[in-house]
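As promised in the previous annual report, we have extended the structural survey to additional targets. Below is the entry for Lipoxygenase domain-containing protein.
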Amino acid sequence: MILLKSAGLSVIDVFCFFRTHPPVIQKMAFPYEVTIHMKDSWSFSMYRSLYVTLVGKQAESEKAKTSTPFYPFNKNVFKITVNCPEDIGEVLMIKIDGYSNGLIPYTWHPEKVEMKSPSGLVYMFCGYQWISGNNVYLFKEETALLSTNSELLKVCSEEIEERRKIYCWSTYKSKWPDCIDADSAASLHLGQGYLITRILKRELKVLLTVGWLELTKSRNIDNFTDMSQIKDLHKHHMTPTSEYIMNHWKEDDFFGRQFLNGVNPMVIKRIKALPGNFPVTDEMVSLKLSSEMQKGNIFLCDYKILDGVRTNTINEKKQYLAAPLVLLHRDANEMKPIAIQLKQKPGEDNPIFLPTDFEFDWLLAKAFVRSAEFNLHEIDYHLLRTHLLAEVFIVSLNRNLPGVHPIYKLLVRHTFDTLQINNAARTLLVSDNGVLTKNSAAGKDGINTIVQRALQSVTYASLCFPDDIKERDLEDVPNFYYRDDGRKLWDCMHQFVNDILGLYYKNDDLVKNDKELQNWIKETFQHGCFDQEKSGIPKEIISLVDLVKFVTMVMFTCSAQHAAVNFGQYDFYGWMPNCPATMQVAPPIEKGKITEAQFLNALPDYKTAVQSMETVLVLSAPTPDEVSDPNCL
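The corresponding structure token record, generated without further manual editing, is:
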């Protein structure tokens, strides 16, 4: 009162003032701190603006906008504070979208996203997807859930609906596995910034070698006339393995060893009887074959899938590809070739080559086998069985399982880069003008034929590591390191998958009634284009035991199996005579007439050899994100 009087104001005056000028009451803000851990900061830095929206159980925040900094080449952490006028409740998802700076559609990949709520609760989101201009929803990482309640089912259905706009099916070639429709997958396309950092992070020596090999193409050399020319080409990039092969590739025990522990240990099998089209006699090999087969010492590599494949024409010269049968004998724990037939149909023009033949007769026969190995490995066991089938698993996964699903969380880590790499392979490797198309014996028509035939021969057992080893009767073969290492990895993955899925599927009915899961299995089968009668690949899964096996198979295919048939390519193919991509002469029809000059003339010409070396060098180079075991250094 005293203050009012001293100011000359009455109570009525004060009342009227506050009635016409109400006090401004500050609303309480709820700050949510979002931290983005970036996988590739160069591409991320190309964004002019970034928008973050939080979706909670009670409300959704307004879109928070911020400008992004420019941090080239470094892994960075970027923080955003989203102020909400009210508590939005338990956070269900984060929506992130950005506006890129310029005409290039840059994309970036968050490793993870953390969010701290006003109460101090920390949520963790996994960076499952590439981000471009599209909205991306990242579910809470620490809480995998089955869509068993209506609220979660609605959210998951909306996510799947959005995903299906991006992950659309397409057909690259008839009777190939279906693939992603790249035109509709804008958010999957790698931006130029990502490619720049990926290239710069590659081993400098690999890049320099490729550059040097490119320069050698200008040399005025057609066919090799001396082994020293091949050594000169190889010496500028030798690994310890490729150097060993350069010194030992002619030896029979090393030739046989590669079928077990080379880059393609997928063809060899133990036999108890000779094929009817391979008339090897005891006299030819100085062995009692029936007795040795009963002892488990006779093995076969049969390349019948290559029979009759139409071959390539390179530099206006017809190329050749054999479909050999190779008989091997295990002696004192060594696997040695004892007979080679280069064509499937026996006859006078199809001799059986033996180690006792003239040196270059036997060496040329082995070269034809290794060339067949190169083509079958690259097209069937590498391209088809790891890349193309992995793509089917991954596209179907993203079309049917929401990010909160435990199976999605188990497998998504194994999908990074696969779709982008496959899209590049269809453009750069196996297209009409692709590197493999132009520089392999199979060529355009042959690649198509081999993929189609191989797909029809794919079985569930051949994709499941333990079943494949058992089916080929290789469980007790000594010194078989692919089997030994692969078994450890399969068992580890199988146990991990079993432990995780057992937390969510308490009984088989939960597996059978999981609609999202069943849609994934069904769509995988349909778009894998498998032979329905003999593949054995499941169209549905109704038990936890079968589910664990299937998920383990997918995980193993996308990771360990691909590594086994990919990263050793330059080691085994870098020394070209050990595995020529093509042969320039037809398989010999008689013995005793092959000279060293004729052998060299049968190998790929100089430029084709250079191109194939470049290709396998790049394919087998470690990725920028390679993780090494410090105990193996």
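DSSP finds 25 helices and 17 strands in the chain. The first strand starts at residue 30 and ends at 38. These points will be discussed at the next consortium meeting with the crystallography subgroup.
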